[in-house]
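For reproducibility, we list the full input for the 2-phosphoglycolic acid complex.
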Amino acid sequence: MEVIILPSPAAASQEAARIFEKQIQQKPTSVLGLATGSTPLGTYRELVERHRSGAIDFSRVTTFNLDEYVGLPGTHPQSYRAFMDLNLFSQINAHPGRTHVPNGMAVDIPTHCAEYEDAIRRAGGIDVQLLGIGSDGHIGFNEPSSSLSSRTRLKTLTPQTIADNARFFGSADDVPRHVITMGVGTIMEATHVVVLAIGQGKASAVAAMVEGPITADVPASILQMHRKCTLILDEPAAQSLKRQTYYRWVYDHKPQWQRI
Ligand code: PGA
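The corresponding predicted structure, in tokenized form, follows.
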């Protein structure tokens, strides 16, 4: 795992956006895995800027989002479909038919989940997957105890995640209890996984992910087994890492040809 510690949330978001920019420039038909929440907002602003300046053409890109709340239609302001439309899709030239978010109103959820997996496979698999990390160590909505080889399916949120996300809904009571999320196994099949974590609230989850044992108790820890995982942090999110000095040393000594 490559651990990149940067001085500010803006620098971290720019680094993540640079990876996506390079990916799309090298492969205009890239398949992107996208995330929601507070963390990716800066990255999406950067991507919109880069699109406006002519650096990124999204017209041939396909996207798959990680997750969606069960029971919220895409028109609900707190649905992840609405989040993506507002913060990214409406501001870039991605083809609407190629932006995928699980359908929180699906009547037959297991069939919908199997179809979502099929759609990812038919698109050729995910080239780069953007991830945040929950304060409980979740990725997507794969809460602690999720199978590390799970596929897209229904999950029940933990009280911790409901409390974390209550800020978007006004109160914890309004946060749906169930979600559809790509599985840990689905995420692990992406060619490149980019995890972004910002702020002190993520420091202990980040330390457990990078330096703790691989365990379903911290689903993000399975990324220690991923062949190409880049973890981008601001200083507060990195503060509990034991090997911070080494990670900075590695980054400072990165060969020129490996730099974005
Ligand atoms: P956040 O969520 O970006 O809103 O902190 C991250 C996550 O839960 O994966």
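The mean pLDDT is 97. DSSP finds nine helices and ten strands in the chain. Both points were considered when choosing residues for closer inspection.
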